[in-house]
UniProtKB/TrEMBL annotation:
PANTHER family linked: ALPHA-GLUCURONIDASE A (PTHR39207)
Residue span, Glycosyl hydrolase family 67 C-terminal domain: 449-672
GO BP annotation list: xylan catabolic process
The name this protein goes by in its record: Alpha-glucuronidase
Domain of life: Bacteria
GO molecular function: alpha-glucuronidase activity; xylan alpha-1,2-glucuronosidase activity
Provenance organism: Actinoplanes philippinensis
GO cellular component, one term: extracellular region
Pfam families: Glyco_hydro_67C, Glyco_hydro_67M
Lineage: Bacteria, Bacillati, Actinomycetota, Actinomycetes, Micromonosporales
Residue span(s) of domain Glycosyl hydrolase family 67 catalytic: 120-448
Length: 675
């Protein structure tokens, strides 16, 4: 049965890559050389574009554009773009480089055919660029089909089954390939009993997804349950040192690869938020990860093991336990003990995808371990795809962070270099030395991402995976051009203005100065200042009548700042050098504390909340003014979301300002109305 809505009833709105972006390429003579399914995909793209725009695919005479395989050109997936004999050429080392080369030509349009085009080598910085779908096969009673999903149901699964029609999955793979992503994980990190079967009797479903995305160079990964041998009823234990358990994983994994030879690897959330793990058997996370690594090693594939391990049953009265410390406390001492094909996947901040967090110190430690950074594209804490929140400026700050001071190489450089002393960090040369992972934000919504403008976050993550140093504003403009190719300058300008600073605007009207949370418990949307304050989750702001913030210093607090290398340990420790935007993450200060910006903490709270909500109010007429320039369905969806963002921003403003006004008794120095 075809589960896609009838096209005229509820069309799926394309994202980037509408046919018109192929105009320059499609109106020329284009030849594609190379064998295999990836080259076939490129040929099919070219044929469709030429048919539409009057060009010639596979001409017998000299082409205007040649895409071909030329050994030694630019490494796996890489390509050289340049001019040879009066034609534009894409020279790729193997077929995997042809598709990215094609999309680079598409992005450039006419400029790709400039006779003066100089040679450029393009290579992805991160070898594995993976989107982790938190999609449940079986609808979860609380979390629904997609955990933290804000764009409808799963594009893979519906009510316990694989969707019968995977054409939308194929379309998705095409969009991802054009953004630079090369892998997806098809099920949630919280692996329910039913989902455990994906490894065994439901493997055919995974194989079907793999077949749908393979033509676009995308590989499939699966989240596995550490207790799978027990859950599936095969063994009485999942102890990672038990020989029978190890054999079970080895033979199960062999069967996976026999069915899906290019299978990508496993993802594991263990001993975290109720998931099973090696602690049950008195074993370490190195024992657990290495067992899975041993099963995957003969196939040259990695296990991504998440570092998101903390006590979610904390006593809130105990001010010495600090959730921010947890990942480093659990993992740093294990450095050097992980197998070559274990990748420790670390959330970018120490807590949990808040609007503002420092870089996780785990990413700055563990020089002998493969580390992956995990970003969250789905906007769990950043407006849930009802608010415009363009996240790449935040991600760029993480990737461009300088681990040992202002002149040291960036975090991205370090992550892509792999562990020190490793032989380019590989098992059979296939374990990626650089891994960028991100929690996906798409669903079966007609706009893919609920908020049409949230597509830009999805697009950008792949682009940063290729070039982490790229300016987020330039990526935004690229996305605007690819998605709205016919847009007049006024529309481009409006889109850019609405999106470019939207993360900072969101930060202004939500939790202040890096303190985090203050969201409604459970679903995490909207303000609730004390919602998590007296709960076991370890996410507190400690506001009282005198001050606010978490003392994480070595001198008087939890000692978290000591997990950083210098100079960060000292910078964060000292009030005189701690950056304003992270002040309350690291310090508990009086409301009257003077920020480096020259204003007090309490006045900063008032000012930013008024300013943020005001900015959102202005965004609505800006969007209304371009109504005639965007297709009506897209315009209406964005307008509807902006109305909710406006309501929500004012709710945040009023709750936060009122709470701190009442707590502190300090009046607003501008005399504005606070309830
Ligand atoms: C938290 C989410 C939760 C996820 C968890 C994780 O609230 O739904 O399962 O992260 O990353 O942010 O495992």
């Amino acid at each position: 049965m075809n589960e896609r809505p009838a096209p005229d009833a509820d069309p799926v709105h394309a994202a980037w890559l509408p046919p018109s972006v192929f105009r320059a390429l499609g109106s020329r003579r284009v030849r594609v050389d190379g064998e295999g399914p990836l080259a076939d995909t490129v040929r099919a793209e070219v044929a469709a574009a030429c048919a539409r725009f009057g060009g010639v695919a596979q001409p017998t005479s000299a082409p205007d554009l040649l895409l071909t395989v030329a050994a030694g050109a630019a490494g796996s997936e890489g390509f050289l773009l340049g001019r040879r004999d009066g034609a534009t050429v894409v020279l790729a080392d193997g077929p995997a480089g042809l598709l990215p080369g094609l999309f680079e030509v598409v992005r450039r349009g006419e400029a790709a055919f400039d006779p003066a085009l100089a040679d450029e080598r393009h290579q992805p910085a991160f070898r594995l660029r993976v989107l982790d779908h938190w999609d449940n096969v079986f609808v979860h009673p609380v979390m629904g089909q997609v955990e933290r999903g804000y764009a409808g149901g799963s594009i893979f699964w519906q009510g316990g089954r694989l969707r019968a029609d995977l054409s939308r999955v194929r379309d998705y793979a095409r969009l991802l390939a054009a953004s630079g992503i090369n892998a997806i994980t098809v099920n949630n990190v919280n692996v329910g009993e039913g989902e455990t079967h994906l490894l065994t009797d439901r493997l055919g479903d995974v194989a079907a997804i793999a077949s749908a995305v393979r033509p676009y160079g995308i590989r499939v990964h699966v989240s596995v349950n550490f207790a799978a041998p027990v859950i599936l009823g095969d063994l009485p234990t999942a102890d990672p040192l038990d020989p029978a358990v190890r054999r079970w994983w080895a033979s199960t994994t062999d069967r996976v690869f026999a069915t899906i030879p290019d299978f990508g690897g496993y993802l594991v959330k263990a001993d975290s938020e109720g998931q099973p793990g090696p602690f049950t058997y008195g074993r370490t996370h190195a024992d657990g990860a290495n067992m899975l690594a041993a099963a995957l090693a003969p196939h040259g594939a990695p296990v991504r093991w998440r570092a998101f391990v903390y006590n979610h049953r904390q006593d809130w009265r105990d001010r010495t336990t600090d959730r921010a410390r947890a990942a480093h406390d659990h993992f740093a001492a294990l450095d050097g003990r992980f197998a070559d094909n274990v990748i420790l996947q670390v959330k970018h901040g120490p807590i949990d995808f808040q609007t503002r967090e420092p870089v996780s110190p785990v990413l700055l430690a563990m020089p002998h371990t493969h580390l992956a950074v995990e970003l969250q594209v789905t906007q769990e804490y950043t407006g849930q795809q009802r608010h415009i929140c363009y996240l790449p400026p935040m991600w760029s700050g993480v990737l461009g962070f300088r681990p040992t001071g202002d002149t040291s190489p960036t975090l991205a450089t370090r992550l892509t270099a792999g562990p020190s002393g490793a032989d380019s960090g590989s098992v059979s040369g296939r374990t990626p030395a650089g891994v960028l992972s991100a929690v996906a934000n798409v669903g079966d919504d007609r706009f893919w991402t609920g908020h049409p403008l949230a597509q830009a976050n999805l697009y950008a993550v792949g682009r940063l995976g290729w070039a982490p140093g790229r300016d987020p504003a330039a990526i935004l403009d690229e996305w605007i051009s690819l998605t709205f190719p016919e847009a007049p300058p006024r529309l481009r300008h409006t889109l850019h203005t609405l999106m470019d600073d939207s993360w900072l605007t969101y930060e202004q009207y939500t939790a202040p100065l890096g303190v985090g949370f203050m969201v409604r418990p459970g679903h995490h949307y909207g303000p609730d200042v004390d919602g998590y304050e007296y709960t076991p989750w370890g996410t507190y702001h400690f506001a009282d009548r005198d001050g606010i913030g978490v003392d994480r210093t070595v001198a008087t607090g939890t000692g978290f700042t000591g997990q950083y290398p210098p100079p960060w340990s000292e910078r964060y420790e000292s009030l005189s050098t701690c950056p304003d935007e992270l002040l309350l993450f690291f310090h508990h200060v009086p409301y009257t504390h003077l920020l480096h910006s020259g204003t007090t903490v309490i006045q900063h709270i008032y000012d930013t909340h008024f300013a943020g909500a005001q900015r959102v109010a202005e965004m609505r007429p800006e969007w209304d003014s371009v109504a005639g320039l965007v297709d009506p369905a897209t315009h209406a969806r964005v307008a509807e979301r902006l109305a909710e963002q406006h309501r929500s921003a004012e709710e945040w403003r009023d709750q936060i300002n009122t709470y701190f006004h009442r707590k502190s008794g300090v009046p607003d120095d501008k005399g504005r109305r606070i309830h």
